[in-house]
Each structure stands twice: as C-alpha cells, then as structure tokens.
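Researcher: I'm comparing several assemblies side by side, and this is the next one on my list. It has 860 residues spread over two chains. Same procedure as the others: predict the full complex and return the structure.
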Amino acid sequence: MYDPLEDENGQPRFAVSTGDMSWNKTGSWRYMRPLYDNKIPPCTVGCPAHEKIPQYFAYVKDKKYEQAWHIILEDNPLPGVTGRVCYHPCEAVCNRGDYDESIAIHNMERFVADQNLKHHIPQSFIRDKHEETIAIIGSGPAGLSAAYQLTLLGYTVTIFEAAEQAGGMLRLGIPEYRLPREVLDKEIEDIVRLGVTIKTAIRVGRDIGMDTLQRDFNAVLIATGAYKSWGMNLPGEELKGIASGLSFLKEYNLTGSAPIGKRVVVVGGGNTAIDTARSALRLGADVTIVYRRSKAEMPAVPEEVEDAQREGIHIRFLTNPVGFSGNGKVEQIRLIRMELGEADESGRRRPIPIKGSEYTIDADQVLLAIGEVPDLDFLPDSFKLKKDRLLVDHFQRTGQPGIFACGDASTGPIGTVVDAIGTGKRAAHSIHQYLSSKTVHIPEEPTDGVPFDTLNLDYFQQESRPQERQHHSTQLKGDFNEVNLGIGEDDAVYEANRCFSCGTCTYCDNCLIFCPDVAIRFDVDKHEYVINYDFCKGCGICVQECPRNAMSYEEELKWA
Amino acid sequence: MSQKLIKIPFEEYMSPGSVACPGCGGNLSMRYTQKALGLNTMIVIPACCWSIIDGPTPSSVNHVPVFHTAFETAAATASGIKAGLHAQGKDDTNVMAWAGDGGTFDIGFQALSGAAERNEDILYVTYDNEAYMNTGIQRSSATPYGSWTTTTPNKKERPKKNLIEALAAHHIPYIATASVAFPDDLIKKVEKAKSLRGTKFIHILAPCPPGWKTPPEITIKLARLAVETKIFPLFEIEEGWRYHITHESSGIPVGQYLKPQGRFSHLTEADYETIQRDVERNYKILKMKEKMSKEISAMD
C-alpha cells in the first residue's frame, strides 16, 4: 500500500518534523526581565492606618465578606466606626479620581464591617504569647487600636478609662446619627473578647497614680485624647449660656439630654463644630455656625458640611465673634466680617478682620468648638510638651523609658479617628520592640503609591461612583437615627470591580493571554503566575499590558 | 479572586521556543487562532516569517501537521489537502492556509482568488505585518501609505490594497478582520469560520517590532490603536455583502498610532491630516455598508 510518508525503502519521502521547539531555550535572547511585583496603592499610603484596600476588595468581588473583614482587621479593629466617621484621605489620593470619580472606599469599609456584625474577631489572630503586661490610659480609638495590636502580639493589656463607658471620643464626641452605638459597642466587645481588660470610671491621677501603673506594668501607653477646649478670651465669655461644644456633646451623649437654647450659635469649622450644630438642631434649636474662613478652608468633612446645610443650619462664613453681651446670661453675640490674606503655617489663607464691619445677632446659647488640647495634668512635669501635646518621636516614645503616647494626646498627625488608630498601631509595634529588647520588624510606613500614569487605562471604562443612601427626616427634632446608610451589596461588588487595584494583581490573565511565546502559566496550587525564563524573550508585553502596574521590567544583567 | 477582562480558551497548541522576534504579533496570531481550531487541523504555510518561526526540520512549534509550501501556492495547496482529506472521508479536519501579507496580497493572490471563486472549503488567514519582513522589510501591496521600507526609502506613495473588498467581490461565506489586541474577538471569528463550509478569509493585523521600528512591548498597544483610530476597524462580511462592525472604534487621532512607529517618523502634520482624512472617509464607507446591508436584510 502507498504510504504518503515513507518510500518502499522505509525512508521519508520529504522532511517530516519529529518534535517541537522546546529544545530551543529562547530565554538566552533576553536582556530585559519581566517580573511580578505588587506595589503599594496610593489609598494604602493615604490611609493613616495603611489598610490594604485592594486586597480586601478582591474578596468583596467574590462576596467573601468575612475574609475581606479579616484583611481590614490586620490594620484596624474598628472598620464599622471608621467606615462611618473617617474623613477618608484614601479617597482624596485614589487614582480613579484622576480618571472619573474616586472609589467610595469609606462606604466599602462600612459595608464589609456591617456584613460581619454577627462575627467576632477570631482568637486565632493572636500570633504569640508574652509574659509582659501593658497599661493603656484611655479607651478611645488610639487606645483600642494599640490594645488590639498588642493583644495580637501576645501581650496582656489593661485599659484605664475615666468615663463610665469605653470608647473615648467615639462615644462622648461623635453623635449617634453618625455612629450608632450598637456598631461601636460591637467593635469594642470584639476587642474585649480577645482578652483586653477595660477598667471604666478610673481616672489616672485621681483614682490611680501614674507611678502605680509604672510599677505594676511593663509599659504604659498614654492615649487620653484631647478634651480641653480652647477659649476665645473675648469680653463677656464668662456669661451663662456660653460653653464648649464638646462639653455639650459629652453631656448629651452620656446622659441623653443637655440644656439647649432657642437660638444657638456654634463657633468653629471643624468636625466638633458640625457635630455640635447638628446635635443642637436635633434638640430643637435654631442653629447658626460662625466660621472665620470660607467653606474651602473648613477642616470638617465636606459631606458633613453639606448635610448640615441641607438640614437647615445657617453657616456664616468669613465671620468671627468679637464679644458677647447679655444680662447675666448671653443674649447677643457681636460679630466681625473677615477677609482672607496670605497663607499661614497650616497652608490655609489667614483670615483678617475687616475694619468697621461689626454687627450683632441674637443668641441665647453659644457653643465654642474652635479646637481642643489634651489634659495632661496627671503627668509629672518631666514630660516634654509641644504645643500642649506630649512630644513623641516616630516610634511614639515619650523619652521616658517604657512610657509611650499616641492619638490626640501626643504630637503627630492632625487628630482624627483614623490618625489615632494609625498611631495606636505604631505604638503597639514600638512597645513590642521595647519589651522584647531586640530589633523587631516595625512595619514600614509606605511613602510612594503607584502613580496614575503607570496604569494601563485601555482596560477601563468611565464609570460613575455609587451614591450613598441617606435617611432624610421631615421631623428632625428628636431624630438621632443614622443619616448615612451606606451602599448595598450590588454597589459594593460594582465598586470593588471598578477599583483600579493599583499595583495589586487581580489575576486578570492579561500577562498570560498576551505572551507571544507561551512562556507564562498559572500555577493553580500556588495561585500565582509563573514566567518560564527558559523561553521568555523579554519582549515586555506582559508588563505593558498589565492594567495595574503589578509587574516590573528589569535589566537582565542585574539577575546574572 | 480573579477579575478576567478577556476570556480565551485555556488549551495551548503551540510549544515555546519559536524563533519569532520578541514581541512578534504573528506568533501571537497563530497562538490565538489555534486555540479556536484545536488539534484536528492541518496548516499550510507558504514562504513567510512563519516558515522560519515554526522551527527548522525536524522541529515544529505547532502541535498539528504543518505543510510548508512555495510562496504563491498556499491556497492551492490547502485546496489539495482538503480534497485529499475529503477523499478519505475526513471532512471534519480544518485546513488552514497561513500566509503573510506578501504571500496573500501579492504573490499568492492568484491562487487565493482561484480558491475563493471555487469556494474551496478552507480557512485562509493572513497575518499582516505590512511588508516583506522576513527578507528585510521590502514594501508589499499591504504596506500603508506613508510607510518607510527598504524599497520605499522616502515613503510609500500608494495606499494599502483593500484586499477585504477584493475578497468580498468573490462572494465567499465569511470574511473578517481581527487584531492581536482583541484576542476574544479574534478567537470568536475563527470559531465562526470553523463552523462554516466554503472559503473563509481572516485578515489579522500583526505588528512587527523590527519592521515597524517599535519597541517590542508596545505590540498590543499599537494593534489596539490601529483599531481605535479607525485605521484597522474590526468587522466581518457574510456572503460578500452583509457587513457587521464587531468593535466600534473610538476615533482616537491617527497620530497616536503613527508617532510611536519609526517607519512613520518622517511624516509631517500634513501627512497626518491626509491619513486622518482617508481614514475617516473609509470608516464612513464601512459604516454605510453596514447600514445598507442591514436595510437590505430587513427587506428580505
């Protein structure tokens, strides 16, 4: 029979291939080497607690909310709190903001936390066991964050709290319409369940001495916050009806009632001012905020300012009080108009009074919310202060052996909940370093996030940011129900997918799909891509087509 | 934990170790095409880059039989192989002629036209790198207007041959353009061609880093820009008259595609304007053909 391949002598009739080309190790051609190289996204850099945002988004995409929560918990034990009240600096630096709209990261965090209200932090998170004990003064976000991290590191932690209940400013300062107490209670309970002891109604300096703590514990962390309000030193400030906004909030939040006037003026432009004004509004007052700069300079979260104005609070911008008058009780407040001059050391334009622009409005209650400083009277004079705060170094050390400080009580970032959580975490690692008397790994502070122009935008479409649901009351009086209601599951999954995931591989397969040389495969067991450097010619298509800058390209000589 | 942007079949029918240049669009074209065709396939390759890429005897990167043949004979050889398979009752085997632009637009055009007119049951794919790259970058009739090649040292003065329209004039069942930047679209088109009897023709634009004078890593970027600038729109033609655009080009200015390429580095703003005008007109014609074929379909 005729054989098309062989002749009658068994020889091939024409050249026939007998094998493939895998003997030809084209990797020797390569002078540039691609590699998988996850990088830090700008949101993680921008977050003072350095939450691993794209990593937990990866679980949200698959609706694995418990795993997503566990990723957040590595850096922040209070996501239900921060998802609601954080000023979200992460969103300000989000690369998506340069493209269409930044990712609603705070709503994502809140969504993940709310999906886990019935779960508790697993005991398996505790990684080690140490004999040493640590005292923490203050159970606000800074103290709780440090206590949590130290517990995970294996230490025994006792928190001393002056108030009747734990939570610090989260409970005393932040109103319920922004932070429902069941969320706060749940997250504090989770930390207590891990083994943290919180002793409430014990004020250090009154009920127990600093020296006792130093004697009984191996380290002490001062996380007492900033509760002493600034005064204005204006004529008539001693009149009845003039008080600090924070003391008003404290009284209402602890007891459920506070004296309230009919025409209330709140002075200040920070979050305490907005919280004071919106709480006073809910108690039935007619509320005006007086702020000496313009809206752009307000330190309060912009969304909160919008909400306050929507609810009917009148804000007089570029206005400052110059005095108060009344018959034993404040009746009138004298104001002066301001204009903005050169930028001051805070980078904001300095307000300058306009001569002769003074006028008077009626007020039967004035609440001052122009800033707070720590009350550190319980400490001996040997502690160094800077601008009324405890001076600490990068490792949250006070200079006194074994005594650390974090949060608003110490110098450092600008005093928000997430700053407190971030410094608390750093203090915990620093105390661990101190107690183990050896060099321990203090997680580095990331500085550079993946830049926008290194992403491959060919793989993204313009998509809008989901709108947060809100509870709008027709009858605000007495309504302390939560105003912001977050986003639903569909929006959360959509938002997780909308995220650029800067610098973090999402296993999109682009590298593998576009490799002309079949030199990349996915290792299912290790769940990672593997480049076969025997064959990779170093064309760099995989690096170029990675949408997220999760690969790098290096000179081959470096690897020789 | 994964977020797929593009989905293509997992199976590979090519070994690594091919001698294609780094960043070769032609190599990638073959990898995708074979994912759609599978193992029951025979490939005919006339003289072109792929004569070399496939490997020296007795090796072949392809896991299916490859028949190397003379420059002008791809379509004729494929027709013969198909007839041989038919005689053996093996009608389900795919026979693909795989040729470069020289072997298709120029030297192999007579055989291709003949096969298409007879409606031979073959798939003919041209991976078009817009010049005779394998022999050292000589112009072909697929080289676009304005391009430098060794035989057009100033610039090519004539436009690229519209081979798709020439094939449409043969009334064959299926014609499509495809791009290595859109692998899912490419694979879908090959799958569709595989499902049809008669002559199928697919035109893949395959960027060539050495011939286009571009860095190898931007191969996909360029292929995508060619589509998005409307220079190389993605569409298909059924029965020679039913037009269907498979990806609406976003209309990025042509300069973004031309500027990164060394072969166009001598072009002036006036040249860009000429090219832009031609591109807009051609895309308009294509859009009108699509509209017209829809209207004619609705009348039937």
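Model: For your comparison table: Chain A touches chain B through 47 residues (CB under 8 Å).
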